[in-house]
Design brief:
alpha/beta, Rossmann fold, 2 domains, 47% helix, 16% strand, binds 6-O-phosphono-alpha-D-glucopyranose
Length: 458
């Protein structure tokens, strides 16, 4: 069994003394696939992403069951930053802003050639590693051409592909140049079976194939809604380092005028345009404006961890998040109250601490394949939390009933939802949170992966 993804389970960093330290990769894809574990006998083929990773490849350092591909750094940069994150991510999350974007010019064509080369490197590595009749599951928008390429090299294999993102509807997808759109769809349709996180994304893909590729051919399409790993989260969130961070966070949050702990609205994201952090802050500002009774009594705990910082648009977005948080604190803050507690340094233990303290979780992406934070907070929160959830997150398909639903563009509506969430009676909140946690853990990562394997083999 083989798995292929751009980001792998670990990433290496060269320390000052020349040694290599390993760190777990971030994002939903790695969370889902990490359940496979070293005992499954799988080989995970991934990219060398950092200088540390390339050094690890050169030194022959690595984990059992992981093969890192050292594609030339400029080819990888074109494929990952240029095509995958600046074009395909933007198409599927519908993030483009006319009149400036998109422009498919000669530079795009050059980068597309690198994307093809990058995909070919994966197809060749998989073809080389796979035993006769093996199963290969290819992941995400970085590797859409791999199934078709691999099919040509190794017709004996069972090939799957899984998308961790939304899929764009045909009217949006067709903004890609026709030949590129056709290559992507044909590449995906090289698989025996394609997996998506929700029916909505699977239907959009099917509609694109009907509109631009003459249908699905013999390829099957299935839905597997990745859930949270309850056992891992409950255990991990009660370890000593999480307790320490809870104590530190409680200090930062402080007590309200009545002497009781302040309410917390928690969000944890990669600093990512689709996560809609800026409109979340605008909604919080609106709440403080419309409902002054919450001033001094609530804190917005926002963790916005750096992501894809090679791209200017992500750097600008990060700066805007920081600017707005500072502005809100300057406008409303008092000597004993910081309205927004913003942290930007990635710290998983601190995220879990915030989950435990959360009264309200704010998950308001403009579009999101699933969003695991929406599923994790109800599992971990000590007293149960109210979930304010965007109707555009894949998780809404499973959690919508017990969440407070928002249109992510509607800042006033989101402010109203935050007020409703903060005002929810404790008993109702605990009840709903329990049901959310049950729905969120219905398909834990191990099961999620095995279901795909069974369906592919079957
Ligand atoms: C999303 C994508 C994953 C990606 C993750 C983190 O969840 O679907 O493929 O790994 O974001 O993004 P990054 O660019 O850091 O790998």
């Amino acid at each position: 069994m083989l798995v292929a993804s751009n980001r792998g389970p670990v990433s290496y960093q060269v320390e000052e003394d020349g040694s290599l330290t390993a760190k777990r990769g971030g994002g939903g894809l790695v969370s889902g696939l990490s359940a496979i574990g070293p005992d499954a006998g799988a080989l995970w083929v991934c990219s060398a992403l950092s200088d540390g990773d390339r050094e690890a490849v050169r030194r022959g350092v690595g984990e059992d069951g992981v093969r890192m591909l050292d594609v030339p750094a400029d080819v990888h940069a074109d494929a990952y930053n240029g095509i995958a994150n600046s074009v395909l991510w933007f198409v599927h999350h519908m993030l483009y802003q006319t009149p400036l974007e998109p422009v498919f010019d000669a530079e795009f064509r050059r980068q597309w050639a690198s994307y093809e080369r990058f995909n070919r490197a994966f197809a060749e590595a998989l073809a080389e590693e796979a035993a006769e009749g093996a199963v290969a599951i290819v992941q995400d928008y970085h590797l859409t051409l791999v199934p078709g390429m691999l099919r040509e090299l190794r017709p004996d294999l069972r090939i799957g592909h899984f998308s961790h993102t939304p899929w764009a509807p045909p009217e949006y997808f067709r903004m890609l140049p026709d030949d590129v759109a056709g290559q992507i769809l044909r590449g995906m349709l090289g698989a025996d079976r394609l997996g998506f996180l929700t029916h909505r994304w699977a239907d959009a893909f099917t509609a694109c194939c009907e509109a631009f590729a003459g249908g699905l051919g013999g390829t099957r399409v299935g839905v597997h809604g990745l859930g949270a790993d309850a056992d891992f989260l409950r255990r991990r969130s009660h370890e000593a380092d999480v307790d320490e961070r809870m104590a530190a966070l409680r200090e930062e949050i402080g007590t309200g005028p009545d002497g009781g702990a302040r309410r917390t609205i928690v969000r944890v994201d990669r600093t990512e345009l689709s996560k809609n952090i800026v409109r979340g802050l605008l909604a919080y500002r609106q709440l403080l404006e419309d409902r002054p009774e919450w001033r001094e009594r609530v804190v917005h705990v926002a963790f916005a961890y750096p992501s894809r910082q090679d791209l200017a648009v992500y750097r600008d977005y990060t700066a805007e998040v920081q600017r707005l948080a500072t502005e809100i604190n300057a406008r409303y803050g008092t000597p004993g109250w910081t309205p927004v507690v913003l942290h930007v340094k990635d710290d998983f233990a601190r995220s879990l601490a915030a989950y435990r303290l959360a009264d309200v979780a704010l998950v308001n992406p403009v579009r999101d394949g699933m969003n695991l934070v929406a599923k994790e907070v109800p599992v971990v929160s000590d007293e149960g939390c109210a979930l304010v959830l965007s109707r555009e997150a894949g998780a809404h398909e499973e959690l919508g009933e017990d969440a407070i639903t928002v249109n992510p563009y509607d800042v006033v509506g989101t402010a109203r939802a935050l007020h409703e969430a903060l005002s929810m009676p404790a008993a109702e909140r605990a009840e709903r949170s329990k049901r959310l946690a049950a729905a969120a853990t219905a398909l834990p990562p191990g099961r999620w992966f095995l279901d795909q394997l069974d369906a592919l083999r079957g």
